């Protein structure tokens, strides 16, 4: 039971992280496209984009794992999770 609860919390966190990564990747990609090819900030933005893409792949793996287990994220309070 606690393992299922932990898996559900992880799945919910992975969904939230995926949402945030979508914003980061969209913003960084727009910034890269707006800069001249030789701009000094461009390599830094490319590094950020690559790191965010790696995180997105890891998040995808977490979501796939939770889906195979049949776990669906549900709303819960921190207190209810700690009391269990």
Radius of gyration, rounded?
Answer: 17 Å
Largest sheet: none
Give the count of helical stretches.
Answer: 3
- One letter per element, helices H and strands E, the order comes to HHH
Count of beta strands? 0
For the record, the count of structural domains works out to 1
What oligomerization state is this entry in? single chain
> What gross morphology would you assign?
elongated
Helix/strand/pairing category? mainly alpha
Strand content: under 5%
Spans of at least 5 consecutive residues with low confidence: none
Query: What fraction, in percent, of the residue positions are helical?
Result: over 70%
Mean pLDDT: 83
Please report the distance between the alpha carbons of the first and last residues: 9 Å
TL;DR?
This protein has 84 residues and is mainly α. The chain contains three helices and no strands. The model has no long low-confidence stretch (mean pLDDT 83).
Could you outline the blueprint of secondary structure elements for this entry?
Blueprint: H1 2-34, H2 42-68, H3 78-83
Written overview of the protein:
By secondary structure, the protein is mainly α. The protein has one domain (2-83). It has helices at residues 2-34, 42-68, 78-83. α1 (2-34) packs antiparallel against α2. The longest helix is centred in the first third of the chain and has 33 residues, at 2-34. The chain is elongated and about 55 Å long.
Which features does this protein show?
mainly alpha, elongated
